[in-house]
Design goal:
Layout (H helix, E strand, L loop, with lengths): L1 E2 L5 E2 L6 H11 L3 E2 H11 L8 H13 L3 E7 L5 E7 L1 H25 L8
Antiparallel strand pairs: 1-2, 3-5, 4-5
Helix pairs in contact: 1-4
Amino acid sequence: MSKNEGGKSRIELLQGTLDLLILQTLRWGPQHGYGLSQMIMTKSGEKLQVDTGSLYPALHRLERRGWIKAEWGVSENKQRARIYRLTVRGRKQLAEERSRWAQLSEAIARILAPPVRSEP
């Protein structure tokens, strides 16, 4: 965990987690980059903050893989922006990523759980 400028704790993202968060956020509907980062921050209770230095390379990587598609459009504030959408391949990948996340979460929960003692 690290501190952001306001002194609040925020959670560092595990490598690969950002792809899952982007795909899930785009499942709710098309969005531009800034909107994605804001939605991730809002939905996480302001615990997850995605910097542009991480977000845009991830978006380009996902686009190269065919998991998302980008088109020029207009944002809510009438600015020209790249609008990202989840593709069919992206939906399949999201299902795989969610399954992996569930397995990882379950494995970590087992390690964090108190040990079960057997009676002699």
